[in-house]
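Trying the structure run again after the queue cleared.
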Amino acid sequence: MAYKTWVIGGLTPSWVEPDFKDNRDTNTLTLKCAAMYDVTGTDPIDEIESFDALASEKISNDSLLNGGTKLQVRGQVITVTATNEGSSETKTWTRCAIKKVEITLDSFYNEDNPGSIIEYELIISYQTQGGPGGSVYYPSYDDYDNTTYYMWTTMDNTGAAPGIVGSEIGYLQITEPQNVIRVEVYGSACCSPSATPAYLEVNGVKQYWHYTHDMMASGDSLPSGYEKLTFELATPATVVTLETGDHIYPSDTCSTNMGCWLQWVRVVYE
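Done. Tokens:
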């Protein structure tokens, strides 16, 4: 389908070739564009530099359990819209990032010529939605731009070892664009003393673990293993907060090592 007008992170190219490339395997759009003085009345380089300022340093767009993808960037997340050339039909990609701006070397540009044109390509990654609606998160949980993560319930990551920080949690908060009604996790407690069993609490809903993974020499009352826990939220919410029992550095006793290791977290939308 041909689209005539594009708005990319609030910016509109002077011209976009109507037939664009949408690679569904890599979830990328490739747009052949031109910055034209005759359209903007300004130096075409200004248009190039504006899009280059939106480009992200690092982009990942990994596949999720629910069939969609999760876009993570070191840079700006933007919205892209395109309007059909023959009608008012509009297509929107709500969570995108510019991978790169590639300038065509044979562009007709001369800084002394007000009619100059610079041809360029925009390569844009976009997130896809799986079903049912929701998102799935994998470690490291501190790598997402919509999460707040702490390994310890003292709300810090003091002394956390590489390979463990980002996976073991004491506190994790996730902010979603729409209401969440269910949260599923797969993991296990670090340690669970018999007097105060280890638990995970999600928006006030508490469940106790049946397995642990640290296998401490003494004090652990549960067998080693992993399990799935499902939390049905009484009140749908866009902010999901996961909290454990005491997980306090240096966690050298079972009673201070009641965090959990989560292999994944899935949120399901209302």
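The helical segments are 37-40, 44-54. Worth checking whether this holds up in the mutant runs.
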